[in-house]
Amino acid sequence: MSGVATYRRAQENVEDPRRIEIMMLQRVNLQMQEADTKGPVDRLYAAWQNRRLWSAFRLDILAQDMNGSGLPPELKARLINISFWVDNFHVAVQKQDKPLDPMVKINEMIIDGLRQSIDMTKKAVAPAPGSAPESGGMPRPSLGSISA
Fold first, then answer.
1. Does residue 64 contact residue 70 with C-beta atoms inside 8 Å?
2. Fewest CB atoms less than 10 Å from the CB: which of 34, 94, 95, 107?
3. Could you tell me the maximum CA-CA distance found in the chain, to the nearest angstrom?
4. Contact 90, 48 (CB under 8 A)
5. pTM attached to this predicted model
6. Cα separations in angstroms, 23 against 27, 84, 93, 105
7. Beta-carbon neighbour count of residue 21 at 10 Å?
8. Model confidence at 14, in pLDDT bands (50, 70, 90)?
9. Following CA atoms 105, 109, 110, 111 in sequence, which dihedral angle do they give, to the nearest 10 degrees?
10. 77-110 pLDDT, tens per residue?
11. DSSP secondary structure string for all residues of 3-67
12. Buried b (16+ CB within 10 A) or exposed e, 28-63
């Protein structure tokens, strides 16, 4: 991958926090899937990483709520409930040797929802064909517009 392509990919990820959330969920899912084929220590560590991620999501949602911004109330409630479910299931993994697959499936559903949200945002923000860009008629510069 060229330096320009790497920069573009990083720029896309920085511009939309949902992409970062997708990457974090994918990473922890991979850890959990690989851990199921390894030993109990790897399983516990992967489940703990998932719990940490969902705890961070919960704290972020609550912090946004205190600022009066963020997600719609129903979505906030659902995500907070999922984070508590992850906490409880993590304990079941520790004490009862439960499989990690239910947590992987929850994460996959959230990833799908985040992707749909990104797609809807792109469609809502995309300018009509032939219209001028919103930035005062000037196109937004990027590395792709620089010729070598």
1. yes
2. 95
3. 61
4. yes
5. 0.73
6. 6, 21, 24, 15
7. 17
8. low
9. 90
10. 999 999 999 999 999 999 998 999 999 999 999 9
11. HHHHHHHHHHHHH-HHHHHHHHHHHHHHHHHHHTTS-HHHHHHHHHHHHHHHHHHHHHHHHHHHT
12. bbebbeebeeeeeeebbebbebbbebbeebbeebee
CB 86 within 8 A of CB 51: yes
Q: Residue 98 corresponds to which amino acid?
A: K
Are 68 and 96 a contacting pair, CB within 8 Å? no
* AA identity, residue 87: D
> 133 vs 79, 85, 119, 141, CA distance in Å?
35, 44, 19, 12
> What is the Cα–Cα distance from 21 to 115, expressed in whole angstroms?
10
Structure confidence at residue 126 as a pLDDT band (50, 70, 90)? low
Q: How confident is the model at residue 34 (pLDDT cuts 50, 70, 90)?
A: very high
